[in-house]
Amino acid sequence: MLIILSEDNYLETINSYDKAHWQTLLDLIPEIEANKKFVDIVERENNIDGVIQMPYFRVSKTVHKFHNLVDTMGIMISFDWGSWQEGKDILEGKAFGFDRVDIPTKCKLISMIIRNDRFCDGFLVSMFEDGIILGILKSIERQLNL
Length: 146
Known about the structure:
Elements: E1 4-6, H1 10-15, H2 19-26, H3 28-34, E2 39-42, E3 45-46, E4 52-53, E5 56-59, H4 61-73, E6 76-78, H5 85-91, H6 103-119, H7 123-129, H8 132-144
Parallel strand pairs: 1-6
Antiparallel strand pairs: 2-5, 3-4
Helix pairs in contact: 2-4, 2-8, 6-8
């Protein structure tokens, strides 16, 4: 079930989560580190009826697991992510880095990435390939261990 937090209550909700709440998401870290490929291109095929199927991409199981976990963990936040310049700067590497922001801000980044992927197909995969998702998760893990 998709759980989306509002901009009014996300801080207290996310800050109330203990380490156990995050564990299934953090368990993806070794899987992400071991993965070299986060998408497969399915080539064009002709089926028996002569219908041509155009090439498309299929995200890896790791990306799919991450997306499903994020949807159900209560870390997605409803906010105007398209206008959030700080988030854009962080993702583009212009800001201080993931350890300089709190966990709720990292959740806003994750929300921004997931939402942007709906409009820019492949954006989530690119965030995996660029190490952004891994960096966010490792930063969450470090902050939870403090």
